[in-house]
Amino acid sequence: MITTFAKGLEKAGVKPNQVCVPSDILFEPAIVKHFGFDYFHTTRGRAIAFGTGLKLANPALKVVPFTGDLMTVGGNHFVHGSRRNMELTVICINNFVYRKIAGKAVSIETPKFSPYSTFEEPFNIPHLGNSCGAIYTARWTALHTEELADSIAEALNKKGLSIIEILAPGPDYYTSISNVNADLVRFYYDNSEIRNDEDPRNVGITPENKIIVGKFTSKERSTFIDSYNAQLGNVLGEKFTPYGIESGKKGAGGKNG
Amino acid sequence: MKADQRDVLTGVYYIDGDVASGYGALAAGCKFIAGYPITPSTEAAEAFARIAPKGGAMFIQMEDELASISAIVGAAWAGAKTMTITSGPGYSLMMETIGYGAMLETPFVLLNIQRGGPSTGVPTKTGQADMMQARWGSHGDYELIAIAPDSPQELFDHTIKAFNLAEKYRCPVMIMADECVGHMTEKVVIPRAEEIELEPRRWYTGPPDEYIPFKPDEDLVPKMVKAGSGHKLFISGRLHDERGYPVDNEHFELKYVRRLIDKIMCNKDKIIELKEEQLDDADVVVVSYGISSRVAVRGIEMAREKGIKVGNLRLITVWPFPDERITELAKKVKAFVVPEINYGQVVFDVARCCHGNANVVLVPHGGAGVHMPDDICDAILLGAKEERKIEKVIEFKTQLEKLVFKGGSKLKE
Amino acid sequence: MQTPKTNQQKKIQVDSSSMDRIHPMENVLRMDRIPHIWCPGCGIGLAVTAFAAALEKAEIDLSKIVIVSGIGCTGRVAGYVKLDSFHTTHGRAIAFATGIKVANPDMKVVVFSGDGDLIAIGGNHFIHAARRNIDMLVVCVNNFIYAMTGGQVAPTTPLTAYATTCPFGCVEPPFNIPYLADSSGAVYVARWTTLHVRRLTNAFVEALNKKGFSVVEAISPCAQYYSRINRLGDGLDMMRYYHDNAEIRNGEDTKNLDIDFQGKIIVGKFIDRERPSYTDRYNEWLSKVKGGENEPG
Amino acid sequence: MKADPSGVLTGTHNLSGNQACAEGALSAGCRFLGVYPIAPALEVSERFLQRAKKASATFIQMEDEISALAAVIGASWTGKKSMTVTSGPGLSLMMEHLGLGIMLETPCVIVDVQRVGPGLGLPSQPSQADMMQARWGSHGDYELIALAPSSSQEMFDFTIKAFNFSERFRIPVAIMSDQYLAHLQEDVVIPHAEDIRLEPRRYFDGPKDSYLPFKRDEDMIPPMVDIGQGYKFHVTGLTHDDRGYPIMDEECQELNVHPLVKKIRDYTDEIIEVQEANTEDADVVIVSYGATSRAAFKAMEQARGLGLKVGSLKLVTVWPFPEERVAELADKVKAFVVPEMNLGQVVLEVERCSYGKANVFFIAHGEKGVENTDDILRAINQAVQVDNIKDGIIKFR
Amino acid sequence: MAEVRFAGYGGQGIIRSGIIAGKAAAIYDNKYATMSQSFGPEARGGACSSQLVVSESKVLYPYVTDVDVLFAMSQEGYDKFEPGLSENGILLVDEDMVKHKSPRGNIKVYSIPATRFAEELGRKIVANVIMLGFFTAITEIVTYEGMKKALPGSVPEKALELNMTAFDRGFEYGKELLKKKNG
To answer: Cα dihedral sign for C166, C167, C168, C170?
Structure first.
């Protein structure tokens, strides 16, 4: 998955050292060192909130929250981040174990605890994100490597909050990112159907149907920082120096050292 | 390092404590505040929101307190000086991430304008019942610094002081003010920028590849870098080694977490600030902090008029606690009197440090108001009179308690 | 504390010609707590009046209904209705109510709170309760601002509107609450303003009789902060704005319901559908668990 | 009151601490569990769910710990005994609602399976570093009861005890377990339902319109009612009077909050339980609680074998703290030795209550495994040799 | 040391009055002045009050205990706070708003038709500033000069002139009244 991510970075023309990954999923140090981005293991569900701070204090950063507990503990940050259109590329690792897909029951050994109780219906993440204002939504399984890399690249170059949902059961708050349950992903992959540009309303995952994957939405909307600069520029006029312009040199972080 | 001229609103003001703290934050070079409205701290956020854009700073109102504190920890790692503002209930919500911030050795400041608790309590009135929470509220072992200002001027000064301490020791610093101080309007003098001394962040300047995020300097505090500057940071809130890599052996708790505590405890002498008055020949010492220390003075004056030798010890820094100073004093005095706007918190630390050498009288107050000076005076008299050593914190019965529980109150029909 | 009389209070006053007659709302309101704390021109009282009327209309057993509020001006509603009522912590009313409903499915559970409480800090519980389809009615009184703390920006404040923590105008687009409720799975979603008292009452009746997570957004004036800071006049002027700009479009697609600063407000009933509730799913799951299979040895 | 047999799995079972906790809860009549999964507390929910059908119990996994405790408090007001289970980071998130539980005087039980902190810490290792948090973690003034079990059997017994205390005093009760106990498999004897004594909820039985939710009985505990019974009561987290109506002044604050503290402080005799061994003639007493007492007890026996007069004081209730007993012992002994799996928390209380009459040694225990006694023995040896009383805690490294 | 209680209802500028007087004392008269106010939902619409302690030395106890001056602009404020007024205190009332009882002990009562004057000036809202002028003249807790310096920046810039006039109106009325009483 990380290799795919790196491929996405490369395709987008983003250098790893501009990239900051706040995550509530445990990465392996070797991975981080190998790819060369900055990584923060945050408290559960707070990767987007943490990323909001990183981005606002240094707007030049490319902030890519990788999150697993996003839709449970971090649901609020997800909806509000989308609404604000904070410039973040959110990678949402969907940990939920779908007991049944396309009428077929999962026969593979599954993790004991998943983010929701087994009898609950999960969120339709692209739909929720889209309805809150996220500008880009896509869903892939971890095995759709090419498509995933393309989506990541595309999202990285969009201005605003993008959501890429990856069906990859396994890695969570306690176990590392490499810990994907390969059999289960294969099962999902085999039972998926690509439908780009599908209305996100229709991509909820249900026991009867195939998992719909694809790039669903891509739109333009003013980001938080742009809106901030426009509004304050209007009100304060000359007195106001736009925030975070000139590739972030004016950001709150100041110079290193 | 001196403050930046653009950030300092030099002049003489007549403002309340909350606003003074907002001005103090900007003067201290704070470039990012994330907050969420909560009475009685909101005015500080509002003040900062008004002045921030002119100093190139950002105020953002997040969706809740959990997001606010997560955002400032993130912003601190992106290089900014940061702060968040809250009161009791919001403070409780922040507990998880305060511990996380301590674990990451993140410099940030938290302003808590205390109100009456527990739960929603009395939002618009004063309290001092979050003091122990500041020290112990997050899970796990850690130490942090807490200071208690007693006037709007101090809220300005101590906000700067808090930023300085945070940068110096790379730890969360709590400003534990109370509603009374936050909503009190007094004269505040903001000096010129060149008169404000700021502690710069401890930047690491060596080759990026050799950076070890949690390798301490001699004073046990490690150096920091900015995210996104090519250091391939791996920063985990899990138990980690010097490189920041997670470790799976509790053995490291002793090695690593202990340093979080030691870096504060070993620098205690430099951190702790006390204000002492007439302690040389005192029989009784009043120990207080925040607004209570101002209120206590009246009680002290009354007791002095009655011929009691009373000294006054004000804790400007409450955490770390001045253990040694109290122990030393306990050997000389008969009693300590501790007025707090709670039912006993810091008093237990006073009692602990006495080692049985002096009696300890607690003057409690549930909040939503301040002590009656008469109560403090009577408690002083009680402390001066008692010859026996009493192995218990003596809980003084206040006039309010007598009124409410003896049927004098209008609330009890 | 004396509060100048509001519309709401005037309605409660007993008709002087028949002093011994009991006021119709007396069995729903805690008369010993009147006068209430809401400011002159506030719309919360109207929402409460509509709710009280709806209780009567829906013929609900008043001892089987529980009302939970969070913190804020609307959070005080729980204190004024004579029902089992809980005034809980900020943002957590839905979570608290979830516990009540799941532990005692016989109760009708109503959450009555404000936009800041339900949608800002409580956003997570809002979407999750909708997803789980917990059987409850959520009344969200939306006044575009945090009023209890003195006028801070809310996630519902329209773009460019002023508030104390955005002294230069709001820069964040507001939530479209019906859309959020819809996309999280609510089964009944309606929006009315407090001008539409009769329709609001009907919406409450429908939602009370609906099984599942129902959301009624009541747009309400805040004369003290929102209107004053934005120079929009008093409560009456806001009512006039609702009158001129509210457009009824029942069944409108929820994604078209954004509200711009002093722009058009589309009101109506938007969603009315069926989904199994949490308790249904839990019971179904339990029924599938065979006798000994799930029992440890 | 006797236990409901549908929740009691009478017999001897080999259970982990977590499983024993779930069994204890069901035996105590707990019928609502609201949780958010966190290691190392997961097995409590698993076990509870496995047994939910038989006991007609309700389970919900909420979206986070904040809502989990909120739901538990709500559920408790429906008349169902309720519980939540978590670990350090979750407990931190629960702090606001702990305050609500205290203020609404809601009986409920919070199980904290402690792991290494702070921050994310170490989910897979035990710790006792949330002890002070349990006592002081929420804002405002309160007192609560915290129990520390040290075996699977105690986990079972103390869970029942916790429910009894919570009903007796209308207060949230904390069970401070840890990762070591959570996963320790041991035999647990579960008695017959009729042998389990339960504290019934104190219900109000007067006329419906005369119910005041916070009007206290003589013993300061207000009787309760369930929602849905037609009492139409109001309760609030704001400072309130007997009617549950908010009044925000000093007098009401005193009337409301002081009893929250006093209802525990005045009943410490009834609440506090300690287990003592060999303290009569001891020169050194090991003060311990939870899993650490296992090592403490072993160390005491080993030291006795070496001819040292060592006793053990095990705290069953850590909060409220047995101040008087420690002060009494301090008169007689040379020193206390306090091993804890943290960097010094409860030891501060021992220091406070020994009033300078005995030395206090602290051992940050756990480095060599929970049940290792080496450090404790070395500390005892040192304690016996020190004759003068030192200022402050002696940290044993 | 002087303790002043300002009382009225929301919208009259009661809190603002406390701030202006405190600012004059603290910044322009070089004294110490601590102002506190009641906050919260209770402070809206209904009664509101603020308290000011002015002293030559640092103010320690921040609240009033034995009020020297009660500045009352509403009946409710008067009723509520009159019992707290010292036996030797001064009562200032807006006679259009407050009907006072005959004073206890040595309390001196001074009244002014502040609201009427304000209406004459065209803005009812400046009644509090007229009261402030009156307060300055009668009590001499703050100086005339100090108050005149404190007003700019404390009232809307557009209305500064009107406020200055209003202040003088109250001040002169107070001086006249004193002359009459003493002469």
So the answer is: positive
